[in-house]
Design a protein that fits this description.
The chain is an alpha+beta fold. The chain has four helices and 13 strands.
Amino acid sequence: MKIKILYEDLNILAIDKPSGVLVHPDLYSKEKTIFDFFLKKYPKLEIVHRLDRETSGVMLLAKNSKAHEFLKRQFMSREVKKVYHAIVSGSMKNDRGVINKPIGRSPRDFRRYLSGRGARGEMREAITEYRVSKRLKNFTYLEVRPKTGRTHQIRVHMKYLNHPIVGDSLYNPKGSVPKGISRMVLHAKSIEFKDLKGKTVKVESKLPKEFAKVLK
């Protein structure tokens, strides 16, 4: 497995995460993860945030605990600016919008989260902005900017709008998929943050080839 480094300084690493790779080891899998891949070269490596297994794109890693705490504070104070690209099922009514809907647990499936009626457990604030970039036949191409960082946030909010992400086996298992797509169509396009010297850094990831083919 080859993983591209998009940005690097003495404290921070930004990588181009491939789809289909776990970020961190879990109890159920023994496969090599992003953490495993970089740990040998960076023995003090710490995970700052996560991308779901099927999500691709820009991801930040801290090379030491000082950088980890520094970046964590930026995420918690919502200073980090993230932009995702996604293709969702159906034709969205509005060209842009803001989803301000708390996220809780699904009562039927422990793997899933839920917004709206039926959600259980602690309801956590979740805000997602979206803008239509292109309308396709039976699908909509979006630019999405999550303002909070809840687990599965974009996937849950798109499901809440009845426009779940294409190829999402958890929230859109029976949805149609454009020709040439064999994964969830969600990509972390860019991330903007401050380095330890206070300088603003913006890192971008190229759109995956299979996305580009659909958008032609």
